[in-house]
Amino acid sequence: MCRAADLIGEDVSGYIDFALYLLDNKVESENIFILAGLSESEKGDARKYFDCVLLELDIKIDMDKIEYFYVCYLNEKILEGKRDAHSALAELEQLYIFNGKEICYDFYLIYNLLDYVDMDERYNMEHVTSKNMDEYIKKTFELFIDMYGIKLPEDFYEQAYCRLCGKRSVPCATSKKTLFGKNKFNCICPNCKRSNLYKWSHCSANSGKELYLKEIGWGKSDFKLEAGL
Predict the structure, then answer these.
(1) Which helix (H) or strand (E) holds 142?
(2) Are strands 172-177 and 168-169 parallel, antiparallel or unpaired?
């Protein structure tokens, strides 16, 4: 049986949030109501009632699925205006860094991409600004949910779409010495063979994920909690 520490370290709020997510989706029981009403200081009770909820619902669930539900819960709260988008992104980024949660890798990448907000295209190929940052984060959550369960190529996060030819590949990085002895870096598209340093839609970012979903003909997910459990 999984424990609270498995989800978010010693913090049991994820278990309580999971109960709230169940209630939001009309999955109700006495144990769920008790778990949802506990405080984070009641660690022992939270763990006890979480186990009871899993048992009474006959839930056979792995940690990735629980973490997926938690991302869905955060997404709902963001859309309802009850959670700040950037703080939710930062929380998932921290889960990746300190707890090694692979499911949070996308959010780790996007969090670090936002270091380049308002910079020019050399550093900010996603054109994220302080004005559209919240919408970009919301799109990150939406794409994560849409892509959950899709088997991606092993090198997916290294791939990018060339904006010159529209094809997906792993860009070939090159460098050469200038007349002044400095290294000049470039990228070559393996498909069109053109030099292209900044005009890429990386699959680690929202633009690349959107293009990938379009390429494989993937429609909007219609995930139902009951089916996922």
Answers:
(1) helix 133-147
(2) unpaired
pLDDT tens-digit readout, 120-179: 766 788 989 999 999 999 999 999 999 998 999 999 999 999 999 999 999 998 877 766
Contact assessment for residue 134 and residue 146, using Cβ atoms and an 8 Å cutoff: no
Alpha carbons 187 and 122: distance in angstroms, whole number: 13
Which amino acid would we find at residue 5?
A
How far does Cα 131 stand from its chain's mean position?
21
Q: Identity (one letter) of the amino acid at 160? A: A
Task: Quote the distance between the C-alpha of residue 18 and its chain's center.
Answer: 18
User: Is 7 within 8 Å of 70 (Cβ atoms)?
Assistant: yes
Distance of CA 35 to the CA centre of its chain: 26
Which residues make Cβ contacts (< 8 Å) with residue 184, sequence separation at least 6? 175, 176, 177, 178
Q: Phi and psi at residue 179, in whole multiples of 5°? A: -60, -25
Please give the Cα distance from 153 to 170 (Å, whole number).
11
Question: pTM of this prediction?
Answer: 0.71
Q: Distance between CA atoms of 107 and 93, rounded to whole angstroms?
A: 6
Which tokens sit at 159?
């791939």
The two structure tokens encoding residue 73:
């819960």
CA–CA distance, 152 with 156 (Å, rounded to integer): 6
Phi/psi at 39 (5° precision): -100, 165
- How much of the chain, in percent, has pLDDT values that exceed 90? 45
Q: Using the 8-state DSSP alphabet, how is residue 198 labeled?
A: S
Residue 222: CA count within 13 A, CB half-sphere? 1
